[in-house]
Write a structure and sequence with these properties.
By secondary structure, this protein is α/β, with parallel strands linked by helices. 39% of the residues lie in helices and 17% in strands. The strands form four sheets. The chain has an eight-stranded mixed sheet, with helices on both faces. A three-stranded antiparallel sheet has the order 7-6-12, with no helix packed on it. The two termini are 21 Å apart.
Length: 368
């Protein structure tokens, strides 16, 4: 039986050598290699500040703290996202206001954002889900009108582009993930970007226990924590960043191949891509009926497929908790949660492999 994983990390021979170099150095915590990875992100995204974290989750939490968001504040998030997006808001003591998504693209519904804003709203935390960029023309109008910060959960969006600028440059603060399901991975890890030097300085201090360099030497200026990324993990990501453009080009080629092969399918619908956007296709999702039955059948045939994301309003941790408020109907989220299916996509997947996967997909749909 042929087997197709959902994704495979791209690990080159140079990666092994870079990791060995770190091991041989005897310096395993955050050091010069992590700084090299941060600089690689600065250059790739054309931003002045990139700060490595243990995960996208801890980066998002720290972003909220840097903007002094806490008790009494509200932050608007989409319901269709991984739980970490909303959880970090509760962790800092604020209220997460959970709103619906657009069923056509699974991104936050901009009308739902406007309807949910109150005098307590301090920030928006939209998600560029699966690598589909957000519409910053609409987001910008909302944030400017109501004087709100934008913290983008760009967990899946390294390399995504909106209006000819890469994701990571539009929001006040953007945070990426480098989990193994991401095409740039450090095993576990995250990267925060911002153009604001004052916030960057605060964030650097907070993730290093609250330390700061002064004329008097190293002092602890605030209560902080340890969210440092080790040089060992950074070494893995650094090698991938050196070929980021070619990896991204390959993902888009494979995505386009899927799109062409599905062009005349009567039973598969493709999500829309944001106007002025260039999708990174961290995940390639389709909409189908009888998703769960089809998913189980494909897995039994060695084809690893997965749901899209999580409907937060259906989860007891969010639906029955005073730290979260569900705003409005969730028709878009419910559609995505019941119909989105993620197909295998990785660097050495071939077009013949894609034909094989889609043949089995259509067979499974017919028998579901």
């Amino acid at each position: 039986m042929k087997r197709f994983p959902l994704i495979k990390p791209y690990i080159t021979g140079n990666t092994h050598a870079k990791v060995a170099e770190v091991l041989d150095s005897g310096f395993l915590t955050e050091g010069k290699v992590t700084k090299e990875l941060e600089q690689a992100f600065c250059e790739y995204l054309q931003v002045p500040h990139a700060i490595a974290f243990t995960s996208c989750t801890t980066g998002l939490e720290t972003a909220l703290r840097a903007l002094d968001i806490g008790t009494g504040d509200e932050v608007i998030v989409p319901s269709y996202t991984y739980p970490a997006t909303a959880a970090v808001i509760a962790i800092v003591g604020a209220t997460a206001v959970i709103v619906d998504v657009d069923p056509r693209n699974m991104l936050i519904d901009y009308n739902a954002i406007s309807a949910a804003i109150t005098e307590k709203t301090k920030a928006l935390m939209p998600v560029s889900l699966f690598g589909n960029p957000l519409d910053y023309e609409q987001l910008g109008k909302i944030s400017e009108k109501h004087d709100l910060y934008i913290i983008e959960d760009a967990a899946c969006s390294i390399g995504s582009v909106y209006d000819e600028q890469k994701v990571g440059t539009h929001a006040d603060i953007t945070v990426f993930s480098m989990h193994p399901r991401k095409f740039i991975t450090t095993g576990e890890g995250g990267m925060l970007t911002t153009r604001n030097s004052e916030w960057a300085e605060w964030i650097e201090s907070y993730k290093h226990f609250g330390m700061a360099k002064t004329d008097a030497g190293m002092v602890f200026e605030r209560v902080g924590t340890n969210y440092k990324m080790s040089d060992l993990l950074a070494a893995v990501g650094l090698e991938q960043m050196s070929v980021a453009d070619s990896l991204l080009e390959r993902r888009r080629e494979l995505a386009q191949s899927y799109i062409e092969l599905l062009a005349h399918s009567e039973h598969v619908t493709l999500p829309s891509v944001t106007d002025k956007g260039n999708h990174s296709y961290q995940s390639f999702c389709v909409f189908i009926e009888s998703r769960d039955k089809v998913m189980a059948d494909l897995r039994s045939q060695g084809i690893e497929v997965q749901i899209g994301s999580i409907a937060l309003h259906r989860q007891p941790a969010f639906a029955n908790n005073d730290a979260f408020r569900i705003e409005g109907p969730m028709n878009g989220t419910q559609y995505a949660a019941d119909h989105a299916l993620t197909l295998p996509l990785y660097n050495d997947l071939s077009r013949d492999d894609q034909v094989y996967i889609l043949e089995h997909l259509h067979e499974s749909i017919q028998t579901a």
